[in-house]
Amino acid sequence: MQLTRRDFLELAIITGAYLSADPVSALAKMKAEDIMSFKSLGNVTLLFTTDLHAHLRPLYFSEPVNLVPPKGLEGIPGYVAGKDFLKMYRIKPDTLEAYFASCVNFPELAEKFGKMGGGEHITWIIKSIVNERGKDKVLVLDGGDTWVTTAIGLFTEGKAVVDWMNYTGYDLMVAHWDFTLGKEKFLQRLKELKAEFISQNVVDADFGDLIFKPYSIREVGGVKLGIIGNSFPFTPIANPREFVEGWSFGVREEQMQKFVDELRNKHKVDAVILLSHDGLPLDIALAKKVKGIDIIISGHTHDVTPKPYFVGNTMIVIAGSHGKYVGRLDLDIKNGKIRDYRFKLIPVASNLIPADKGAKELIDKWYKPYEDKLKEEIGVAEVLIYKRDTFFSTFDRLVGMAIADYYHGVDIVTSPGYRWGTTILPGQKITVEHIYDFTAITYPNVYIMKRTGEQLKAVWEDVADNVFNPDPFYQQGGDMSRLYNVEYEIEIGAKQGQRIKRAWVKGKELDPKKEYLVAVYGGPTPPPESLVPDAKPVPVYDIVIDYVRKKKHIYVDPTPNVKVLDAKYTSPLEAFGKGMIRRIKA
Amino acid sequence: MDRRRFLLLSALGIAGLTFVPGIFRPSFASSKLEEDIQKRLGVSLSQIKESADVKLQAPTIAESGANVPVSVESDIPVEKVDSLWIFVDNNPSPWIADVKFTPMNGKVYFATRIKMGQTSNVRAILKLKDGSFLMAAKEVKVTVGGCG
């Protein structure tokens, strides 16, 4: 795309870049051509996205301030964030690349570079590359967490995204949150999906029979590729098990080894690729156990790998989340050998990448019935509202405030450590759609339970071990639960069950014997006998939407409630800068 | 975490007013395992070596503690193998199964489902006909889950 002067001016207005001294040069550095520039190589191109989380329209999404590592995993991709991330990959601060890959100066850079992702822009990138290379040389893959967790995903039960995937031309897919549509709806969507669904790690819970095709063999660029699928191994634990009743998951690495061997020895493939929703740390650990995988295209943990990570000869890459990147991996494969490769994560800079017209029409069509409802402005953000971090986020504190306001007398609010959501800039109008971006799940109810201090501590320890177990095979790839009205001290490297050293509820030390009223949502369905009988379960998005509408000016104190005793933990204010706060004078 | 696990945890004595390190792993749990092994195998746990020849498959994180699939496999010729035991360290009763092998089995393979009250090591111990013991152990985590 060649930008004319007029385009520049339009862009400047859209992105707010007119505020900088030299808008033309600032923008000239990032034409679509530059973003797409790639010297093609070899006979195979893999294009991949993951963890779109049903964001068919562009959004802001900041990478985390912290990715606090378990002991022994420091410095490994998946556990490096912010300035350290930029240093590790030698990315210049304040560039488009830095804006996409880190939280550093996010509020300012968002004004300059604008929104990210969007189905019509992803489609444009994919179609451009398919055109350039020829369809016979390209395979388009998706790593799951694709159909749900926005309003449009939830309201259309994933149909809008399936439709977009079909239009865009995806070939293969695995899943995680997509399963929370429930088995019946999920299987119906698979029928509508033109891409092939593969997963070797979903089996019948009684007999161990495979539910899906474990792998697919594709002729691409004159060679044979074997692609094995792994859906999220802990789906029935991380999400309510009733959605996948009768199916058993797990990593199933022994079985995977058998499929790798089968592809190599029986089917004589030229390369073995794993399309995974395991999470980056787990896939790095997996590559040490399963021999003979050439490439792992990872997903789930939303990490960004500007360069591939190698375990022996296994190359591991992951293309971020929320539609921020399209991964492109060109390969020169001959006679069972990968002779060369070239890799790039293409940032989907919505203001610079053109839109595919057909994709835009299709997305607009799906949005139409809900547009008025979703566009409604219900408040204004006086602080950066974000989700990603190991322990704390301003959105989770906002949820805590809203739920505590709705259910008077609640002592504690627990918000799940999902890694998806959106980012609302300081000064930005908050819409109904924003709230769904953070909360649109198929089991949205807030439940009120009674729990003793001792029981709470046990649950928090349990979650902490799922985050900080030094062996990724024992992690679930999420962040720590967010605890509202609670402050605590944690030692990451302590033994299982002993990490939380002290905790306070509303300023008073947690009493093991005392019963607390706790509001929870987004976890496994609580057993009915544990619920407070007269508290009616209400969807979390309704509570937050009403709260924002009532308060209008939304400010949340960005000081974390967690003290990490044995690792670096950066405060959001330090990482995002003072620009994360914009108080409006009354 | 379900109600049962809470009850079990409290039964194990988590009632202190402060969080004393080590309280989740009462020392008598491991001695119960040692007692069971001594009683059933006639040797002490410390005398049994871990060996890669015993392949124990179990999930790293159980989907349900009430129903954990476990399988044991070995390439050691079945003629040389006498029997197999399975134990779960932290169960109130650690012993799970005794399996006697005969050449008619064809291969050393056994699969079952076990119940686990809490996170624990699972152990598979093979006794060979020459009187030696080989072991595989794997930690299985029993968790409330809920992340994303």
List keywords for this structure.
heterodimer, A: 586 residues, alpha/beta, Purple Acid Phosphatase, chain A, domain 2, 5'-nucleotidase,  domain 2, 6-stranded mixed β-sheet, 31% helix, 21% strand, disordered N terminus, B: 148 residues, alpha+beta, Immunoglobulin-like, 5-stranded mixed β-sheet, 3-stranded antiparallel β-sheet, 2 helices, 8 strands, 34% strand
Report on this model:
- The complex is a heterodimer of chains A (586) and B (148).
- Chain A has 586 residues and is α/β, with parallel strands linked by helices.
- Chain A folds into three domains: 1-30, no CATH class; 40-59 and 115-365, Metallo-dependent phosphatases (Purple Acid Phosphatase, chain A, domain 2); 376-580, 5'-Nucleotidase, C-terminal domain (5'-nucleotidase,  domain 2).
- In chain A, the strands form six sheets. In chain A, strands 4-3-2-1-13-14 form a six-stranded mixed β-sheet. A six-stranded mixed β-sheet of chain A has the order 6-7-9-10-12-11, with helices on one face.
- In chain A, helix 9 (159-168) packs antiparallel against helix 14.
- Chain A is globular, with a radius of gyration of 23 Å.
- In chain B, 38% of the residues are buried.
- Chain B has one domain (3-140): Sandwich (Immunoglobulin-like), CATH 2.60.40.
- Chain B is an alpha+beta fold and 148 residues long.
- Chain B has two helices and eight strands, in the order ααββββββββ.
- At the A-B interface, helix 11, helix 18 and strand 21 of A face helix 1 of B.
